[in-house]
Amino acid sequence: MRLNLHLLFALLVLLSSSCRKMEYSPNQKFDKYSPSNINAVNLKRIAENTGDDTIRFVLSGDSQRAYDDLGTFIDKVNATPGIDFVILNGDISDFGLLQEFKWIESYYAKLKVPYLAVIGNHDHSANGVYVYQRMYSEKLDFSFIYKGVKFVCHNTNSREYNFNGTVPDLNFLKKEFQPEAGVTGYFAIAHVPPTSGDFDSNLFADYGKILTDNGKVYAVLNAHVDKESIKYPYTPNLPVITTNSIYNRHFLVVEVVNNNFKFYDVEF
Amino acid sequence: MMLNFKTTCYSFFCIMLYAAPDLMAQRFLIPETAMVQRAGSIGYNAFGVGYNLFTNKNGSLDLAWGYVPKSKGGRQDIFAAKFAYRPINIRLRNFGTWSAINPGLFVTHHPGGKFHTTLNKDQYPDGYYWWSSAVRFHLSASTELKINTPKNLLKTGIEQVALYGEFNTNELYAVSWFKNREHLPLRDIFKLGFGIKAYF
Predict the structure, then answer these.
(1) B131 touching A, CB under 8 A?
(2) Chain B residues with CB inside 8 Å of A94's CB?
C-alpha cells in the first residue's frame, strides 16, 4: 500500500512536471503558466512606495538571450541600496518567443523592487507584441508619475512599422509632455534612440520639439545600441542617453535629488 | 520565394489529403499511417497522415496540420513535416512493438502576417534579423509503443495502434541554450507532446 502511494505520488509529480513541458507552439501568445499584467501590478507597488524625496532607479536594457548574465545582474541590483524600481528598456526577447519572455521574467521576478518593461524592436518579431501586451502592458505607450516626476514610456521601434509615421506616436507624446501642475521633471523612456537609423527620421525633428518645448525633460533614456552613450542631438540641455546591454554586463543608475538629475554606469 | 514555399506546401497537402485515394496508379501517395497529436510544438491538436520510409520501414514521414485555439494562446495554424527513425524495435510477444528511442527532425511553418519567411528588403537592411519567424527547425526524440490490433478487429484496416511521447526543441531555443550553458539547463529547451498513430 505504501509502495503504491509512493508510486502514485511519483506518477503525479511526473505528470504535473510534464504538463509544464507541453508546448503547443513556440509562437503561442501565452500559456497556462505565463504571468500577465506585470506593469500594472508593479506600478501599484511603485505608487505605494513612500520614503525620502530621492528618486533612484535602474535603467537596464537588451536582456535578450543573456540568461548566463541575468542572475549576476539581479544580485547586483538587489545589493544596491535605495533603488526604487527597475526599467527593462526593450529587447526583452531576441526572437519574440513566449519562452524567452518567460525565461527573462523568471529572473526579473527575483528583484526586490518592482520593475517595468518597455517594448523593443526584437520584441516585435513573430508574436512578440502579443506576448508583451499580455505579459506586461496592453498599451505600448504609457506613463506614470512618481514623486513629482513623470516617466513617459513609449514605443520608438519605427522600423518594425516600416517607418509609416505612427511610431513614435507624436499625439500621445504631445499630450503626455503638456506641462502639468505638480510635475517638476520628465523622463522620456524608449528602446530605440532618436539618433538611430531605426528611428523614423521624418519624426526626428517633431519628436525633439515636443521634448524641448516642455522644458523640464531631464533626459531621453534609451537602449538598443549595446553601449553606454550620451548625445545632445537637440539642445545642450537634453541628453539622449543609452544604457549598455545586460549581455555586456552593464546598467545605469539614474538619480533625481532636489530636482538635480545625474546618472552613473555600473558594471557587474 | 515566400510564395513559392507556401504554394508548394499547400499543394503538397492538398494532393496528400484529397487526391490520393482515387489514384491507384499513384499508390505510393496513399498514406500508410494517420496520427493525432497533442502539443509537442505542432499545435494544441494536430492531425496528420504519414508514410513508412526505407525497405526496413524504420523511417517515417508525417505531414500534419495543427492549430492553437485562441483560448490556448492562438489563434495559430501550424504545418509540420516530421521525419523520424526507429533504430531500436523491441518485440513484446503478440502484444506489439516498443520503439524505444527515435531521433527525428521536423520543420514547422507558421502562416500569418506577423511571420516572415524572408525579410522585406525595403524595410530592413541585409541580415538585420538572421532567422525566419515563420519557419522553425526542430530536433526530436520520441518513444513509441505499437499495439497489435486484435484479430477480430483487423478488418477495420488498422494493423497497429501506437501511443507515443515526443520531446523536441527548435533552432532558436538551441541557440539560446548554446550561449547560456551555465544557467540555462538543457532540459529547459525541450518541449513535450503526445500522440496516437494508426498503422494501416
Answers:
(1) yes
(2) 172, 176
SS3 B115: coil
Residue extents of the structural domains in chain B: 2-199
Q: Which domain holds residue A156?
A: 27-267
Q: What global pTM score does this model have?
A: 0.91
Number of domains in chain A: 1
What is the value of ipTM here, to two decimals?
0.92
- Please indicate whether, in this complex, the C-beta atoms of A126 and B133 are within 8 angstroms of each other: yes
Cross-chain Cβ contact B192/A23 below 8 Å: yes
Is the residue at A22 inside a domain?
no
Nearest chain B Cα to A124, which residue?
B114
**pLDDT tens for residues B44-103?**
999 999 999 998 889 999 999 999 999 999 999 999 999 999 999 999 988 999 999 999
Taking a C-beta distance cutoff of 8 angstroms, is the pair B79, B111 a contact? yes
Q: Do A162 and B123 touch (CB under 8 A)?
A: yes
